[in-house]
Amino acid sequence: MTNTQSLGTIEATNPVLAVAPLKEETEMLWATDKITALYCRLSVEDLKEDKKGGKEDESNSIQNQKMILLQYAKEHRFPNPTFFVDDGYSGTNYDRPGFQAMLAEIEAGRVAVCCTKDLSRLGRNSSLTGLYINFTFPKYNVRYIAINDHFDTIDPNSTDSDIAGIKNWFNEFFAKDTSRKIRAVNKAKGERGVPLTVNVPFGYRKDPEDKTKWVVDEAAALVVKRIFKLCMEGRGPMQIAKLLQEEKVLNPTAYKKREGIKTPSPETADPYHWNTNTVVHILERREYTGCTVNFKTYTNSIWDKKQRETPIEKQAVFYNTHPSIIEQEVFDKVQEIRQQRHRRTKTGKSSLFSGMVYCADCGAKMRYCTTNYFEKRQDHFVCANYRSNTGSCSAHFIRAVVLEDLVWMHMKAVIFYVTRYEKHFRAVMEHKLLLSSEEKICASIKRLEQAQRRMGELDRLFIRIYEDNVAGRINDERFSMMSRSYETEQEQLKVEIQTLQQDIEVQERQIENLEQFIQRVHKYKDLDELTPYALRELVKGVYIEAPDKSSGKRRQNIRISYDLVGFIPLNELMKEETA
Length: 579
Known about the structure:
By secondary structure, the chain is α/β, with parallel strands linked by helices. Helices cover 46% and strands 14% of the residues. 25% of the residues are buried.
């Protein structure tokens, strides 16, 4: 909204005072430079609650408030009436543009009278409303009037003034009650799987036939897929944002504005500018896999509007509620890659293997080393714990081009073997995975049972020391010390039990993971060169062993951990097949 000069209006979106004199018929009884602040406010909650019998009650509309206030100012010949408007702002806090602009005028000593339609328009926080009425306004000699509540600070002895505090409390109660109702409705919707987000993620649109459903926006979905593909190829959010900007791809806000889709995000000066956080937000949205995620954030109260993130385990997830844009396994892989964040070199160059190379002995990541003076064959990786013989590890050194050749050679052999001898590969790997899983599962189950038994023992011990404390057999200080010790141990056991249960689930899914890996390999049966996407979809990590110089020549061995299945004994498999 814009300033209405003829009425001296201050709108919420532009809190810059513009005072204009009234026409002759509204000239005041006395001459003064001070203004009469006519404050109007309307919130979304007011609109929802004002509906009566299916028809919206217009009494609280901004236009109606303006008419009432201006008419009152005319009848009482108040000087220089000026509107201050907050359209779409809650009364539970006072951080509103229109109100703050009015407050600035009051504190500058330029306001004689302040009028609102009723006390609830000023606010619905009884403590702060009372503070402004009883302290701030009198401090600056401002007369406050709430027309419909017959409240006027010029007559402090009025009976209407006596019940103002009660009315403010009822206004606050109304806000709390409305908030409770809205929360209850949203909770019920969220638990049924109805999307609670008002703004549909970039890549989707609301179904015209059912606003609670989402359909794929093909043009935007292509951009989302491109972002995930670039991440799978090893590009970071900053690199992706820069590339999209260079290619003149409209950012989500600019795209929605162009398509006429409502969005709360402010439009950027450059419609092709991509913020790094926007890319990160897209890469982390589970909704792209076809699921609805509710209760992702929460607020502490109607007074504290700060959005806080709900722990993932407490969020409500409903699967297959709309068409997916990104496959679940691709999304999961991207989250893994995002956890392997790595610093870019000062040259701006990055390696195909950045974030994937580890020292086989100490397990540390291998640092990618390059300069602007290096030729491609000079770029190399070295153990992060090696510092010219002063670190905790030896020099596990490998050139980037050698690493690429060795990995590609191994991947080609794995792809060839799996696609040609799938039955034998499955049988051998199932046996290997089952042996490994059974051993780990048995150990995990044994430890889980021990932890659960100890949890039960601690509960019984706590009851016993409580009874001893009540009976006087142990004093309060000792009881406090022992109970704290038991509670600490229980908290540690809870974390351990949760971890063990997750480990058991992972081990039990090994055969499913094997089938998924075989399907991925078949996608690349015609692959003729190593690509970043194929590398990151098939390989989880590359481990560089210390160089072997026993033969008189330097021999570099590597071990490749494949995603979902781990290390593949390729040499043994090929010997068995040949035999």
